[in-house]
């Protein structure tokens, strides 16, 4: 299904002068003109997908007919993450009910739903020998519960089939519903991720139908529910840069996320997927990302990833509670006679 963008009146079509609010980038979604894609600077170079793990995982995912946001959203880190046996599975179909101005995932009216999906996903993931899985979804505003039940049942099924694997869920905002969020939190993921994406001023053009305050509420409420169910859950969020935000506005976003008790932050460069998406305003230099990481850590985040190609699930395996101990055991692991990894004794 073709990408659906918000309707607009071209500048001057109503007899008024062509004018755009200076508080946001000139975009197609706001009535702007199509601007060509830019050539990336030399530091925007992703690792070429390769390695035995990468090719094994790719073949398995194809055979199991699983959607991954790694492929759907054109993630530049797919080679590195898959080679480390970390993947982001996309449930609830491949068609999103929202048309965010930055996102490469297909948008439209979903027609797909499968009550048996949690079992199938868990059985498939059980064959992949993953150390960490991220489960995300398209937004499903068409479903009565926004898809929260399928998220919870998928977590439960993954726990049953692959008990030692880290589980992270990257959820939509569920329209700010406490009941939907509680359904997911009761399933006890290791990390609850919901992306703020951009600064407060740019929320409307960047995130169709989303709200700054609503997203912060979801993150804050998730941590409160974790306390209520007495289960250590890390919360996480992500920001894109390059859409016209200022450093002061980014500082405001860092502070707002920490006020919501978010533990993990990722910051990466926006890369325009096509000419039908929001235009890129500027590239940030790697030194600026290093500065943002230093600043964000002063707010008290437990972990910050900040670099041009960082995406929401980047190095997700190393952010799970107890990840340092798991990493130590990986380093101490040995190989058996058949070349399989044998973990160190706990």
Q: What are the key terms here?
A:
seven-stranded parallel sheet; two-stranded antiparallel ribbon; disordered N terminus; alpha/beta
Explain the layout of strands and helices.
Layout: H1 52-64, H2 69-72, H3 78-83, E1 86-91, H4 117-126, E2 132-137, H5 148-161, E3 166-170, H6 178-185, E4 191-193, H7 203-206, H8 212-229, E5 234-241, H9 247-259, E6 264-269, H10 286-298, E7 303-306, H11 323-332, E8 334-335, E9 341-342
Parallel strand pairs: 1-2, 2-3, 3-4, 4-5, 5-6, 6-7
Antiparallel strand pairs: 8-9
Helix pairs in contact: 4-5, 5-6, 6-8
3D structure, described in words:
This protein has 346 residues and is α/β, with parallel strands linked by helices. The protein has helices at residues 52-64, 69-72, 78-83, 117-126, 148-161, 178-185, 203-206, 212-229, 247-259, 286-298, 323-332; strands spanning 86-91, 132-137, 166-170, 191-193, 234-241, 264-269, 303-306, 334-335, 341-342. The protein is built from eleven helices and nine strands. Strands 1-2-3-4-5-6-7 form a seven-stranded parallel β-sheet. Strands 8-9 form a two-stranded antiparallel sheet. α4 (117-126) runs parallel beside α5, α5 (148-161) packs parallel to α6 and α6 (178-185) packs across α8 (212-229). The chain is globular and about 45 Å long. Mean pLDDT is 78; it is low at 1-34.
């Amino acid at each position: 299904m073709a990408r659906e963008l918000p309707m607009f009146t071209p500048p001057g079509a109503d007899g008024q002068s062509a004018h755009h609010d200076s508080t946001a980038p000139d975009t197609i979604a706001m009535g702007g003109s199509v601007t060509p894609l830019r050539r990336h600077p030399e530091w925007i170079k992703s690792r070429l997908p390769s390695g035995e793990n990468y090719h094994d995982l790719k073949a398995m995912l194809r055979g199991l007919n699983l959607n991954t946001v790694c492929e759907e959203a054109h993630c530049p880190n797919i080679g590195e993450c898959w080679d480390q046996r970390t993947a982001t599975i996309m449930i609830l179909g491949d068609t999103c009910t929202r048309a965010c101005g930055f996102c490469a995932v297909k948008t439209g009216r979903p027609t797909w739903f499968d009550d048996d999906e949690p079992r199938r996903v868990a059985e498939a993931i059980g064959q992949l020998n993953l150390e960490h899985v991220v489960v995300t979804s398209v937004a499903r505003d068409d479903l009565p519960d926004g898809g929260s039940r399928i998220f919870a049942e998928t977590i439960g099924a993954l726990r049953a089939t692959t008990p030692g694997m880290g589980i992270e869920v990257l959820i939509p905002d569920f329209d700010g519903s406490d009941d939907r969020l509680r359904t997911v939190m009761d399933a006890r993921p290791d990390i609850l991720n919901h992306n703020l994406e951009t600064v407060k001023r740019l929320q409307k053009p960047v995130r169709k139908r989303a709200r700054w305050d609503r997203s912060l509420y979801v993150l804050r409420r998730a941590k409160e529910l974790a306390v209520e169910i007495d289960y250590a859950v890390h919360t996480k969020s992500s920001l894109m840069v390059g859409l016209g935000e200022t450093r002061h506005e980014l500082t405001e976003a860092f502070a707002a996320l920490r006020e919501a008790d978010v533990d993990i932050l990722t910051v990466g460069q926006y890369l325009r997927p096509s000419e039908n998406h929001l235009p890129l305003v500027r590239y940030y230099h790697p030194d600026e990302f290093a500065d943002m990481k230093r600043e964000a850590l002063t707010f008290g985040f437990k972990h910050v990833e900040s670099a041009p190609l960082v995406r929401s699930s980047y190095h997700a395996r190393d952010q799970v509670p107890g990840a340092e101990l798991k990493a130590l055991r990986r380093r101490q692991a040995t190989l058996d006679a058949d070349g399989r990894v044998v973990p160190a004794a706990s």
